[in-house]
Design a protein that fits this description.
Elements (H helix, E strand, L loop, with lengths): L12 E5 H15 L3 E5 L15 H5 L4 E3 L4 H13 L3 E5 L10 H8 L2 H4 L9 E6 L14 H5 L5 E3 L4 H13 L4 E6 L6 E5 L11 E4 L4 E5 L3 H13 L5 E5 L2 E3 L3 H11 L2 E4 L8 H13 L8 E3 L10 H7 L3 H13 L6
Parallel strand pairs: 2-3, 2-4, 4-5, 5-7, 6-7, 10-11, 10-13, 13-14
Antiparallel strand pairs: 1-8, 6-12, 9-11
Helix pairs in contact: 1-7, 3-4, 8-12, 9-10
């Protein structure tokens, strides 16, 4: 499904990292549209905190690759104003944890402006940066922030899991006329994968079947796609074929892909990095309950982070994160739960 999204058919592929794919997407769009610019902390002189913007200052100059003060509310507001004026800003947060300082601009300005101006003032901009836990960054820097953004009408949100998805989804986000949050996995920046060399755009709102299976659907997004695939490989050794559906986009949501997977396997586990209370998975479970109840042979189960602030201690952090073992156990449970059809 992902390959068919390329605009132009078969293309030469290069194996590059996730961070290089994000860089390629920004360069692709800045080359084709002079109104696109990048602004954020350390994006220019330092080549980005995670080196995602490496080389872009030299290529585009300091009017299009702009270092900001350490003031998320201020530079997010500057980007909203630039979008209102006809530019297409890419607003980089060093981490989406820091974007909490800018949520007034995201939720009250960017998300609502088109509605409040009766369609007269679009906000074509991107908020991007890493989300979720990395390695021992403690409670304030380890939060999965998707729920805060998808709750608000007016903001779109994508969570690329692979280098190819990173390039294609970021390019689509930059071209979109609405504000789009692109939430990247901090631990994915070094992940390598094949990415088309040429222009590449993946439409927003299109899920991707990362692994086909008949027995149970593991539906997930972002960094957790890799955990789901590991779990599916472990289950395969028990002759259980798990399907892994990567939503890629949480708003807009590919409802048809979700319902098709449920109808195929009749059992579902939703995996997400965030907390369980009012999480993204709760919305997906509600959707499945409303639209596909008769297809289910067992209740939908969720695997999430523990409902605690992320610990700093390494052993406790590992216990708090959703892992392969928890996903495998959830899949076994929906397959063999007493009272289910097997």
């Amino acid at each position: 499904m992902g390959g068919s999204s390329w605009m132009g058919g078969a293309a030469p592929m290069a194996e590059i990292t996730y961070r290089e794919a994000l860089n390629a997407a920004m360069c692709q769009e800045m080359d084709r549209d002079d109104s696109v610019f990048l602004l954020g902390e350390e994006v220019a002189e330092y080549d980005g905190a995670y080196k995602v913007s490496r080389g872009m200052l030299a290529r585009y100059g300091d009017r299009r690759v702009v270092d900001s003060p350490i003031s998320e509310l201020g530079f997010a507001g500057l980007c909203v104003g630039a979008a209102m004026s006809g530019l297409r800003p890419i607003c980089e947060f060093m981490t989406f944890n820091f974007s909490f300082l800018a949520l007034d601009q995201v939720i009250n300005s960017a998300a609502k402006m088109l509605y409040m101006t009766n369609g007269q003032v679009p906000i074509p901009m991107v908020f991007r940066g890493p989300t979720g836990a990395a390695l021992q960054l403690s409670a304030q820097h380890s939060q999965a922030c998707e729920t805060y953004y998808v709750h608000a009408p007016g903001v779109k949100l994508v969570t690329p899991a692979t280098p190819a998805d990173a390039k294609g989804l970021l390019a689509a986000a930059i071209r979109d006329d609405d504000p789009v949050a692109v939430m990247e996995g901090e631990l994915l920046y070094n992940v390598r994968g094949e990415v088309p060399d040429e222009e590449y755009v993946i439409p927003l709102g299109v899920a991707d079947l990362k692994r086909a299976g008949d027995d149970v659907s593991i539906i997930t997004h972002g960094k957790m796609v890799h955990v789901a695939l590991q779990a599916a490989r472990a289950l395969a050794r028990e002759e259980i074929e798990a399907e892994v559906l990567d939503l890629r986009s949480l708003r807009p949501l590919d409802v048809d892909a979700i319902l098709a997977s449920v109808a195929k396997t009749n059992r579902v586990v939703y995996l997400e990095e965030g907390w369980p209370f009012a999480g993204v998975g709760a919305q997906i479970v509600s959707l499945i309950q409303d639209e596909a109840f008769d297809d289910l042979d067992a209740p939908v189960l969720r695997v999430t982070q523990a409902d605690v602030p992320m610990p700093y201690a390494k052993n406790l952090e590992q216990l708090a994160k959703p892992g392969v073992k928890a996903v495998v156990e959830a899949c076994r449970k929906v397959l063999y739960m007493p009272g289910t059809i097997t």
